[in-house]
Amino acid sequence: MRQPGRAERLAAAHTRDGATCLWCARPLDDRVVATTDHVIPRVQGGPSWLENEVAACRRCNGARGHRGAVDWLEECERRGWTPDVERLARVLDDLAEAIRVRGGQRRARPHLDAQRRRLAKRLDEAA
Ligand SMILES: [Zn+2]
Question: Where does the record place the HNH nuclease domain (predicted)?
Answer without folding.
Answer: 9-62
